[in-house]
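Bit of a strange request maybe. I'm writing a small parser for structure token strings and I need a real example to test against, not something I typed by hand. Could someone generate the tokens for this chain?
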Amino acid sequence: MLHEEGVEHAWKRHERNHHALRAGLEALGMAFIVPEGERTPQLNAVSVPEGVDEAAVRRRLLDEFNLEIGGGLGVLAGTIWRIGLMGYGSRPENVLRCLEALGTVLADEGLSVSKEEAIAEAQQALAEQATA
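Reply from user aminoacidic:
Good idea to test on real output. This should exercise your parser:
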């Protein structure tokens, strides 16, 4: 599949989807732990919002939405989530699905978030990247 798509196109696709995910996650109030110039678009590490049971959120995402995100490792265990956008999985529909599911679960956890706003921000980022 990579050969058919071409490496440069695959890099651009990953970058475009990363920008959309970033816009949506930031609309949900989440902060990236890696400075922007040092990030890789394939693995997005964000801080878990204060007061959220990160393992319970990940468990619900998997059980109810069939969506798996990683927890932090080592000293970051329990404090971050790792959201992958790799290979064939780096698609706009997966970004939007992730934001919808995460927004739903975070709202259920008592956070004041809008999954609709997160999705709209991601769609705007996708539209901007398409014209760039």
